[in-house]
Every structure is written in structure tokens, then in C-alpha cells.
């Protein structure tokens, strides 16, 4: 997650947990070697144009599917999806989430709880301004590659563990293979699985 571009919400989404691990993962979130892509939220493209954010570094399949062709820099549009990474809402009230496969993003789940709460608030605010957005986000995210169900949820304004059934209910059809190794990682470290990092198990 490179802190250079700017979202239409003027948020960068940078995490200390991310910054301290970038020498390990090699900015894998900015690479697209496994067929993943960035989602632009409903109305985000139009708002980026209004704010004169540059878009030359992005390749657009349409106004929702985007791929980076080079890292974003000052003045460039940084999609909200990138600022939310490695989380993404998985239901229409943004209380359950997907998380990037930890063989690609090494941030432990337990260090993403505050991020989950921030994404929840941001997604609900976007839904208020653009009704139907969360439904579209959830539908489009079913095609994501390399995301797993996040083991925590928001319930009655508190953080709770997801049940095994809830995790299964939001699991995506496109998982990375069991023998997947991220090509962008600069250091090969054992103990990372799709759902857990070594730090999660401590």
C-alpha cells in the first residue's frame, strides 16, 4: 500500500502494520499477477473527475474494474478499495468482511480490527450518499481473487468472532491454489497460510 495517491475521500488508508511489513511483501498489493483487480465504488469515477485526480496510471475495463499500470503518485486517484485493503465489505451492512490471502498480505488479522471498524464506517457513509452501493460492492466482490473470509465481525457495535458457518457463507469461489507463493515477496518466510500469519497464532 504505497502512500502517494489520494482517494476522493482524502484518505490514504495507510496502516502502521502495513508500513512495517512492506520490506517483506514488496508492495504485492500494487501488483496484479494473480488476476485480481481494483473495484471503483459507484460514483467514485465521476467524483475523481470532478476533483481533477489523474487517472493515467489506471487501466479501466469499465468504471468499476480497474488495474494499476504503475504505482500512484501525488495527484493521482487512489481508489477507495486500495485504501481499504486488505479488507473489503462482504455483506450489505458492512459488518462482515473479506481479507486478502495472507500469503499475499502478511498483516495479522488481529492487527486489522481497527481497520475493520474504519472500513465499516466509510462503507456505510458511502452507502448513504450512493444508495445501493453496498449491494453492488458485495455482488462484484464475488469475482475477487485471493481473498478469504475475515474471522471477525461487527455485532451490536462490538467486535465478535465469526462462526464457522458465517465464514463459509461469505467464502469466495476463486481461491488461490494451496501451493501458491507470491512472486512479489522479497523474503520467503514460513508459517503463512491463506487465512493466518505466524503472528495470528501467538
Largest sheet: 3 strands, antiparallel
Number of helices in the DSSP assignment: 7
Number of domains: 1
Average pLDDT figure: 90
What is the overall shape?
globular
Low-pLDDT ranges: none
List the secondary-structure elements in sequence, H or E.
HHEHEEHEEHHEEEH
Structural class: alpha+beta
Q: Provide the spatial order of strands within the biggest beta sheet.
A: 1-3-2
**How big is the Rg?**
16 Å
Distance between the termini: 25 Å
Query: How many individual β-strands?
Result: 8
Strand content: 5-15%
Q: Helical percent range?
A: 25-40%
Characterise the protein shown here.
- The two termini are 25 Å apart.
- 35% of the residues are buried.
- This protein has helices spanning 16-19, 22-25, 44-50, 80-84, 113-129, 133-141, 164-170, and strands at 38-39, 58-60, 65-68, 87-89, 97-100, 147-149, 152-155, 158-161.
- The protein has 202 residues and is α+β, with helices and mostly antiparallel strands.
- It has one domain.
- Helix content is 26%, strand content 13%.
- The strands form three sheets. It has a three-stranded antiparallel beta sheet with strand order 1-3-2. Strands 4-5-6 form a three-stranded antiparallel beta sheet.
